[in-house]
Amino acid sequence: MKSIRFAAVAGVLALGLAACSGGGAGSGGSGDGESADPSDQTIGVAMPTETSERWIADGNAVKSQLEEAGYSVDLQYAADDIPTQSQQIDQMITKGVDLLIVASIDGTALANQLQAAADAGIPVIAYDRLINGTENVDFYVTFDNYNVGVQQATSLLVGLGLLNQDGSEGDATGPFNVELFAGSLDDNNAHFFFDGAMDTLKPFIDDGTIVIKSGQTDIEQVATLRWLQETAQKRMEDLLTSTYSDGSKVDGVLSPYDGISRGIITALQNAGYGDSIEAGLPIVTGQDAEIASVKLINDGVQFSTIFKDTRKLAEQAVTSAKAFLEGNEPEANDTETYDNGVKVVPSYLLESDIVYQDNIQSLLIDSGYWTEDQVASGQA
């Protein structure tokens, strides 16, 4: 159903912003286009975890760009612990921040905190993860998450030889044994990724070119709580034991995130699939262009990842925050897709790119996201 909503807005590039629930800027904004000096304003930034280099990069990018614009920043990481994040946001509100930017751990767990923010006149921007079940989220900045799923599935099809990188039909015929992984069910994005991927794979599954040998095709069956690498590794090990003990082989794995991908690859290597794609490893996708996985792609181990430039996402979050604090409404390019169960949250969507071995240089190194030395070492 998310894909249907996406289709309705796929061509929409500039839409008017729906009314925001927060009713204008926080204590620093006048609501009439005037604003306090940025040096007198503090923005609370709540990030989910420091265990993923992606979220470290996001936090640093948001903080540095806000500080460059003159704002004070209270950046907190919650170690993937919901009560910790709730407490951190409570403290930010108590301290009187002028605006909140929140990348939630559980998109349904912050209703009380966001009500307190609304009561205090503090606008809330959801950052890359939609906050659900509340009217008190004013704006959403993210990537085109359905299309990320499309790109993940497309890269899997390219790796299997069913498609070429230019989208034309490949030479391979199949059938191919594929297993599916999804993200954490409490993260709204996981559903968009999975929908986009499954809509893309469905024709190939329907005609038998792709076979999901385990029969596990529902997101509830293939989800990975908290996106944890070790959880994914254990599930892949279980799949190999339960489904492939008859001598059959896995040809490809749809993975929604690089950490999950590395867990999957470890399980496959331990099971004797070889150390590289050339040596027999299945095609494994990913997301976030984490440096450890970029090295694996460069070395021919992981096949692909999705590059979501966190610098651009941070820039959009800062642009939206400045609009609120100046008493204005941020620009949205999507006002239909992201329904949080209470309201459709006005959103700004950014585009992403598929990273293969042959475009690491152009996408990641030439853009300054990673250096050649970092790609070679796998360390930031």
UniProtKB/TrEMBL annotation:
This is Sugar ABC transporter substrate-binding protein. The lineage of its organism: Bacteria, Bacillati, Actinomycetota, Actinomycetes, Micrococcales. GO terms for cellular component: outer membrane-bounded periplasmic space. It comes from Cellulomonas denverensis. Residues 43-328 form the Periplasmic binding protein domain. Its main location: other. It is found in: Cell envelope. It comes from the Bacteria. The keyword Signal applies. Pfam families: Peripla_BP_4.
